[in-house]
Amino acid sequence: MAEETESKNATKPGEDRAALNRQLAQMLKGGVIMDVTTPEQAKIAEDAGACAVMALERIPADIRAAGGVSRMSDPAMIKGIQRAVSIPVMAKVRIGHIAEARILQAIDIDYIDESEVLSPADDVYHIDKTQFKVPFVCGAKNLGEALRRIAEGASMIRTKGEPGTGDVIQAVRHMRTMNRQIHELVSLRDDEVFEAAKKLEVPYDLAKYVHDNGRLPVVNFAAGGVATPADAALMMELGAEGVFVGSGIFKSGDPAKRAAAIVKATANWQDADLLAKLSENLGEAMVGINEDEIKTIMAARGE
Amino acid sequence: MVVAVQYISKERGGEQSHDVTGILAVQGAFAEHAAMLDRLGAPWRLLRAADDFDDSIARVILPGGESTAQSKLLHSSGLFDPIEAHIKAGKPVLGTCAGLILLAEHVQTADGDTITDRRDGPYFATLPVHVRRNAYGRQLGSFHTTAPFEGIGTIPMTFIRAPFITSVDDGAEELASVDGHVVAARSGNQIGISFHPELDTDTRLHRMFLSL
Asked: B28 and A31: CB-CB below 8 Å?
């Protein structure tokens, strides 16, 4: 079916593919993307109303606890999750690991997360994502990082936050930083954007887009440390277009209930009465680690 | 087209007293439909909770997104009943992509093996068609094309992990097809399409819907 479509229809590689990949992210807006490690967890996530799942062998909290080198997941495990659900399936590759990305594209993944949660494969270069047909999402702490990833071909951005901690402070810091820098860029005179692009270390055309439109040219989600319905609502309040929840769901006492509550909180983030109800009796939240108690700062990987 | 951030938090546009288009806004690309209606100068309101639905709503748009997520949120938000009553009263409804799946009487899995009759379940199931989910495959099967649409002419069509209609059943008529697969159908004032007119700049399909 896909072959027939490609031969007959007008989608050209390059620009149309980049547009289609950004548009898939648009369909995910207002939704929750959940980390899952098994087909059973993927079903729980889908039934709770997740708009996509992230397939990985170990969730960030366990990666953090286990230490050692963390890599792309086994393709067989990812395929098992693809068979289990009809929603999009994402998976992570190490920063700069071109071969892992090619492998995920070969198994028809819906979205690749070039992620600081895994051990970086390259401490200088990110993947040239313009060379791939599948879309990429990348993490960013500030506007400069976000626009550099977009220049490399990312079709969706998320805050880095600090994965596997259950501590939302870094996601908040990254989202506020990005928004403040966007506002600053918007407020400049046209002839000041050249200098701003230089300072941000980003291509001029992307700085100009943000200056003219007051937003990133791709969808921007929150990620890293979201553990409760209130955390999700906080990130939406700060301008996130949706949220990733990693360890927060399947490290908690009642994953199905918490997952459904976070989905509803993300959709109805302005409704405080509903948030109050959703926050009741969710069982134990993930334990969490404060940012000053952790040894590995994943957000510092890849600038 | 990426939509301005203001649409994510903006709840309404234009004159609000009557002839308002309600846009289901629980998850997905609802802001893109709002931007499209702004281009046409038509009043709209985002439907997030049951309170948002009142007599001023003349027609409803069910946007793209993930149909399972939308279906859960339709029920928990209390919007399912008023929208179902609206459809059953014969008032206009437009479902795009996930919205088509919410409207379809029968839904098939991507491989076509399992067919679910949704008329018994908690779905609208008011449009007499069989729809196959993710019929073009995963994201690598997404594509953009142009094709004729009944009564409008040739329009751009963007398919994102799209379904298509495998059977147009009694009471429904085909509106468009691409490569031999039906991608739009109508029954009375219900229109279900498998592509995303809100992602292109051509406003003709929305204008036609506003005329219903």
From this structure: yes
Alpha carbon distance, N-terminus to C-terminus of chain A: 40
Of B2, B27, B140, the CB nearest to A267: B27
For residue A126, give every residue at least 6 positions away whose Cβ sits within 8 Å of its Cβ, in sequence order, or none.
A95, A96, A114, A138, A148, A149, A152, A302
The pLDDT tens digits for A191-215 are 999 999 999 999 999 999 999 999 9
pLDDT over 90 percentage in chain A: 77
**ipTM of the complex model:** 0.93
| Token representation of residue B37 | 């209606």
> Which residues of chain B from 82 to 121 reach within 8 Å of chain A, CB to CB?
97-98, 109-110
- The distance from CA B24 to its chain's CA centroid, rounded to whole angstroms, is 9
B88 by Cβ neighbours in 10 Å (0-12 / 13-18 / 19+) ranks as: exposed
Could you count the other beta carbons within 10 Å of the beta carbon of residue A106? Answer: 10
∠ CA B212-B197-B112, nearest 5°, is 100
Model pLDDT, residue B175: 98
List pLDDT tens digits, range A136-155.
999 999 999 999 999 999 99
User: What is the token pair recorded at A157?
Assistant: 């951005």
CB A203 within 8 A of CB A151: yes
CA atoms within 13 A on the CB side of B127: 30
- DSSP character string of B73-108: HHHHHT-HHHHHHHHHTT--EEEETHHHHHHEEEEE
| The two structure tokens encoding residue B56 | 């001023």
Check: CB of residue A225 under 8 Å from CB of residue A35. no
Q: At what angle do helices A255-267 and A39-48 cross, to 10 degrees?
A: 40
Residue from A16, A26, A82 whose CB has the most chain B CBs within 10 Å, to mutate: A26
